[in-house]
Design a protein that fits this description.
Elements (H helix, E strand, L loop, with lengths): L5 E8 L2 E20 L10 E9 L3 H18 L6 H12 L9 E2 L18 E13 L2 E4 L4 E3 L11 H4 L5 E13 L2 E15 L21 H7 L18
Helix pairs in contact: 1-2
Length: 244
């Protein structure tokens, strides 16, 4: 059974708040390589992880986060205009709207099928991101990400993809701060690190046998008869050619 989500503030200052959000389930995990941006440009992609908040826990989490947003905006050293601070708060609190901190999971659907992505039914989400920097061998996070396993050991780079996947559980460390970019203001979670605490059912991927229904009356014996791997009988030697 999943533990209740907990939110704790480690540091609050003029650059935002360092926050630890514990016991969340992850989806849309891009920690080994950055996700492409909305236009499909890999050079503008971000490392990111989306955290799922069940609807049953959302009211308590939202209340705590909105209180934290107010504190962050009061002490922030960059956003000093009272009107902008109010706009940033209002933007962040409008659940599901563009620029809002929390999205409504039920509205996140597969564009091709129209079906809500697995694990997001009756849930809310928020996403923590880290900018990617292009290097000779590909990309790397702009700042180092702390990626740890349940023993608090750093996960080797070649194991990041298999260790962190959509469906696993853990804690996420973020810096929450206001942004003011091209006239758009709000609050955002900047990713500092992820600590995996438990495995879970994978939320991505397709089961190739999901629609398969075994024929009625087929038992193990019949299956073994149908798929015999006995050695083939030796071929008879070819008849010698000669005069009749």
């Amino acid at each position: 059974m999943q533990k209740k989500i907990e939110v704790s503030v480690n540091k609050l200052g003029d650059k935002g708040a360092d926050v630890l959000i514990q016991n969340v389930r992850f989806t849309f995990v891009y920690l080994d390589t950055p996700a492409k941006d909305i236009d499909g440009d890999p050079d503008k992609g971000k490392y990111s992880v989306t955290c799922i908040v069940p609807a049953s826990e959302f009211p308590a989490i939202e209340k705590k986060m909105l209180g934290l947003f107010e504190q962050i905006l009061k002490v922030n050293g960059k956003m000093t205009d009272p009107k902008k601070r109010k706009l940033a708060f209002d933007t962040a609190r409008k659940t599901g709207d563009k620029g809002s901190f929390f999205k409504i999971g039920d509205d996140q659907k597969n564009k091709n099928t129209g079906v809500v992505y697995k694990g997001l039914e009756n849930a809310y989400t928020f996403t923590a991101t880290m900018d990617a920097v292009k290097v000779a061998e590909g990309f790397r996070p702009k700042f180092d990400l702390a990626l740890k396993d349940a023993k608090k050991q750093t996960v080797p780079e070649h194991l990041v993809k298999s260790e962190f996947y959509s469906g696993c559980f853990g804690h996420v460390a973020v810096n929450i701060a206001p942004y003011d970019f091209r006239g758009n203001v709000g609050l955002k979670a900047y990713l500092n690190g992820v600590l995996k605490t438990a495995d879970g059912e994978k939320l991505s991927g397709v089961d190739p046998f999901a629609a398969y229904v075994p024929p009625q009356g087929m038992d193990d014996e019949a299956m073994s008869d149908d798929f015999s791997f006995d050695e083939e009988p030796e071929a008879k030697p070819a008849a010698k050619k000669g005069k009749k």
